[in-house]
Amino acid sequence: MPSPVEETGYYSWLRHDVLAHVPQDVRNVLSVGCGAGTTEEELVKRGVKVTGIEIDPGAARIARERGIDVIVGDVQKTW
Which are the contacts of 54, defined by CB distance < 8 A and separation ≥ 6? Predict the structure, then answer.
């Protein structure tokens, strides 16, 4: 069965507004609700180590394919 990200594009767009707030010299980022990792992938291209937390396993799979280390879980319930 397709996940919501595959059906709707859930968090699959690039967020230039978010990237603008990330300093150029940052080396590590934690992304809570990383979705499919489109924005985070741009950080990986800059050499940033990105760890994401994502509730949707389908979105997490796509984010992993983009080079993001992803923990699948609900941040409000897991920690």
Answer: 33, 34, 35, 60, 63, 70, 71, 72
Q: In 13-68, which residue ranges form alpha helices assigned H by DSSP?
A: 16-19, 38-45, 57-65
| Token pair in block for residue 25 | 């010299």
The three-class DSSP label of residue 31 is strand
Q: What does the block give as tokens for 68? A: 């993001």
DSSP 1: -
For residues 41 and 68, the answer to whether their CB atoms sit within 8 Å is yes
Q: CA–CA separation, 27 vs 12, rounded Å?
A: 23
Tokens standing for residue 58: 């389908």
The tens digit of pLDDT for each residue in 25-75 reads 999 999 999 999 999 999 999 999 999 999 999 999 999 999 999 999 998
